[in-house]
Automatic annotation (TrEMBL):
This is Uncharacterized protein. It comes from the Bacteria. It comes from Sinomonas flava.
């Protein structure tokens, strides 16, 4: 996407994503749509003090304790992107996470699922982990 057409706002990125889908899927507020869930959660958290709110959400998560500590320690500096561009860590493997947090010493990919039929599939998590490792480079990776 050219720089003049890029949209970095949460709502703009969500609308850009919706424009590729059938709009009627988003009636009744887009309930049960993963991209809407991600926007609903991350938008308010991006305006609040991140160490007190987004950091607390991450602190309440389980697993990857060392990686979470690194992310939480620098969460105020996070560049949070809703629906980042598609990642292709290796040929024929493409993922589009719900969000990414780019930080000086760490990199986070976020994948949200609502309760119900949409569940995490092992192949999806494996692809996202490959993409995370490639995007993180030397930084501490965290898949959330």
């Amino acid at each position: 996407m050219s720089a003049e057409l890029s949209n970095d706002s949460f709502i703009g990125r969500l609308l850009e994503e919706i424009s590729w889908e059938k709009a009627t899927h988003y009636r009744r507020g887009g309930r049960r749509r993963e991209n809407v869930l991600t926007a609903e959660v991350l938008l308010p958290l991006s305006y609040l003090p991140r160490d007190l709110f987004l950091g607390e959400v991450l602190m309440g998560a389980r697993g990857a304790d060392d990686a979470r500590r690194v992310v939480i320690s620098e969460i105020e500096a996070a560049d949070v992107t809703l629906l980042p561009d598609q990642l292709e860590p290796v040929p024929d493997v493409r993922v589009q996470p719900g969000a990414s947090f780019s930080l000086p010493e760490s990199y986070v990919l976020v994948e949200a699922k609502r309760n119900g039929r949409a569940s995490f599939q092992p192949s999806q998590l494996a692809k996202e982990y490959l993409a995370l490792k490639a995007a993180a480079g030397e930084r501490t990776p965290l898949l959330s």
